[in-house]
Structure formats: C-alpha cells, structure tokens
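Customer escalation, tier 2.

The customer says the design service returned an amino acid string that "doesn't look like it belongs to this structure." They asked us to rerun it and document both sides in this ticket. The original structure tokens are below, unchanged.
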C-alpha cells in the first residue's frame, strides 16, 4: 500500500469514529431519555443502556424504580434490535450496559472489540421469552397455526440480524416449512421464505417493535413477535400460536456491564450494581408484568 492510500484509509477510519461519537453524544445530551433527565448534577454517574427493543417498557420502569433509592444515577437508554446495538458498540458508541434479546450478540461482544468487551464475569442470562405468531384482531385470517402461514397474504418479519427474526427462521426450518440448515438459519433470505410459502409477501422489519406495530395496524396479516411484545397490544393483537422452544430454541436475554477505555471504574461499578438489581424481587415482578420469565 502506498503512503497516500495508507493516509486516506486512516482518515476514513477517523471520520467513521467521529461520526459514531457525534451520534451518541446527541443521544445522551439531546434524547428525551426514557429513564432519566439531562444531568443537572455533575456528581451524578451517567449510565448508558443499550437494550433490545422488546425491553423498552420494562426498562423504563426499572430505571425509575432504581432511581428511587439511587438518585445519584442518571440513566440514558437506547432501544433497537440487538444486532444494530451490537454494531453501534463495536463501531465506537459508548455503552455501559448491554441487554440483548439473543445470546449470539452478547457472545460476540464478550469476545472483545476495539477498546472494550462485555464483562463475562458479571454477565447474567437473565430472562426467557417466547416467540408468538400474531394477527390483528378482526383480521379473520385463515392462518390457525404456524404451519399454515402460507394461507396469509402478507407477513411482517424481522430481518436476519434481529434475534426474533433469527428464532423465526430456525422455527421455519425445524417445522420443515423451509429447507435449510438450522445452524445457518440466519442465512435464510426473505425471498427464500416467500418462495417456500407459496409467494407469501414479506415485509422486512428492522426490529420486533416494527413487526408488532405493522400487524397491530393491520398493514400485515401476520407476524412473529415475542410474547412480551403483546403487552399493551391486548386490544390490537391476537396470538395465533406460541411457538415451543423445540422449534425456536431457548429464547434467552443476557445482560452484562461493559468494560472499555472510556468507561470509568465508578461507571462500571454502578452499572454492575444495576445489573445485580435486575435479579431482585422488585425487578422480577416488573419483568413478569411484561410477560417475561426469569431464567
């Protein structure tokens, strides 16, 4: 590589790093902060939580509950698909706690990334969930089970980077609805699924929240979400079937504090204490309220 090419490559890397940092700075200082207000006390410890979209409601409540006895903690939350959040962290976004809807994403961060890693010593495989096939209430769909999904006109499906989309793809293979290797279920594309299900129209969604909304609004006839995502949609969504773990595999939510060059000891210790709190009785009751079960 010539000197000019080397220089340009490093410039691109620096620009990418700056872009990620600017985005996350905007997130922390400008977001409505589902769990905390903008820091008005320099002595407060700032904790940034990246959590799967399906944890949105319960995490907001958990942070508020924790703040009752720990007002010195200022929480900021970022909710999206676990795959998207993992990528943001690996690209330089600051995060103190990662709460994933799949073990694959946590395992990847535990291996380490530039400047940091998920702390395996304090990782907890905390929650269980269940994948559900849903429709909108009043749809009169002919789909009565997962195995006759081909009777639907269209389906909202999280893409192959999103845990619920990955679990669904594995279930399709295990049900023999789609041909493939269950160990490589993430390789299944929307076109593969559509062709196997008689041309079923697939609406590819970026996260499970988008799937739930698309079906609840009647934009798509069916979709796969977690049982926890039906919370708050009782008047809009009808569960056709709860998929057994024999089809999807165990749906486990791991959580861990992160260690990195830009995380202080105080932040790490505070993050670890909050992770421990998630196993306490108050937290367990909140998780159960949102249809999660403890591992």
């Amino acid at each position: 590589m010539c000197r000019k090419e080397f220089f340009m490559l490093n410039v691109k890397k620096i620009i990418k790093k700056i872009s990620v940092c600017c985005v996350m700075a905007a997130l922390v200082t400008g977001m409505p902060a589902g769990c905390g207000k903008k820091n008005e006390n320099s002595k407060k410890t700032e904790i940034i939580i990246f959590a799967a979209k399906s944890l949105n409601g319960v995490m907001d409540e958990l942070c508020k509950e924790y703040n009752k006895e720990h007002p010195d903690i200022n929480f900021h939350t970022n909710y999206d698909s676990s795959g998207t959040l993992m990528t943001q962290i690996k690209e330089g976004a600051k995060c103190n706690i990662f709460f994933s809807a799949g073990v694959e994403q946590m395992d990847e961060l535990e291996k380490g990334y530039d400047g940091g890693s998920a702390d395996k010593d304090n990782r907890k495989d905390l929650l269980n969930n269940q994948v559900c096939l849903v429709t909108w209430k009043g749809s009169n769909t002919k789909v009565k089970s997962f195995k006759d999904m081909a009777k639907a006109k269209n389906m909202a499906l999280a893409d192959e980077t999103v845990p619920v989309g990955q679990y669904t793809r594995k279930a399709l293979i295990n049900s023999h609805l789609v041909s493939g290797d269950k160990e490589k279920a993430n390789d299944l594309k929307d076109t593969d699924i559509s062709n196997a299900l008689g041309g079923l129209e697939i609406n590819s969604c970026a996260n499970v929240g988008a799937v739930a909304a698309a079906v609840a609004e009647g934009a798509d006839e069916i979709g796969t979400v977690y049982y926890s995502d039906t919370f708050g949609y009782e008047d809009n969504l009808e569960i056709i079937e709860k998929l057994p773990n024999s089809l999807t595999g165990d749906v486990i939510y791991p959580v861990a504090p992160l260690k990195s060059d830009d995380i202080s000891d105080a932040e790490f210790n505070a993050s670890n204490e909050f992770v421990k709190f998630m196993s306490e009785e108050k937290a367990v009751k909140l998780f159960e309220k949102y249809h999660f079960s403890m591992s």
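Tier 2 assessment: The sequence is consistent with the input. The two ends are 51 Å apart (CA to CA). The first helix runs from residue 3 to 30. Sent an explanation to the customer and offered a walkthrough call.
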